[in-house]
Amino acid sequence: MSWRPGWGDFPAGLLEFWTERQLCTLTSLYADGRPHVVAVGVALDHEQECAWVITRRGSVKARHVAADPRVAAGSVDGGRWSSLEGRAEVVTDRPGVARAEEMYAARYRVPSENPERVALRITVETFLASRSLLER
Questions:
Q1: Whole-model pTM?
Q2: Percent of the chain whose predicted confidence (pLDDT) is above 90
Q3: Which listed CATH number (1.20.1250.20, 3.40.50.2000, 2.30.110.10, 1.10.3720.10) goes with 2-134?
């Protein structure tokens, strides 16, 4: 099932799923259209109505997003699953990266210092999820 975000009426099950500590995957695209899938932490930010991924400047995912903003991210926990689709941008300014680190810390743990850190800010266009996560 799919759901287009109305951040004010987020389904409770979907919110719970995206705040549980779970490993996610991020899919970005090579120039020839092949998918590049890597394990990441994804943190939703309801205040800014986006999702965040922290990474290293120069990483393949950051280079891909700079060239083509289309991304998808997702996670599976038994029969529960969800993915999101949207467009990402590479954020390099300190306040933006700090926000991403704050959101990451809330879901996972405080990230170690990394002077090469940048953030991917994903504007979510659609969530896909198992039916149980979308029920209100």
A1: 0.93
A2: 80
A3: 2.30.110.10
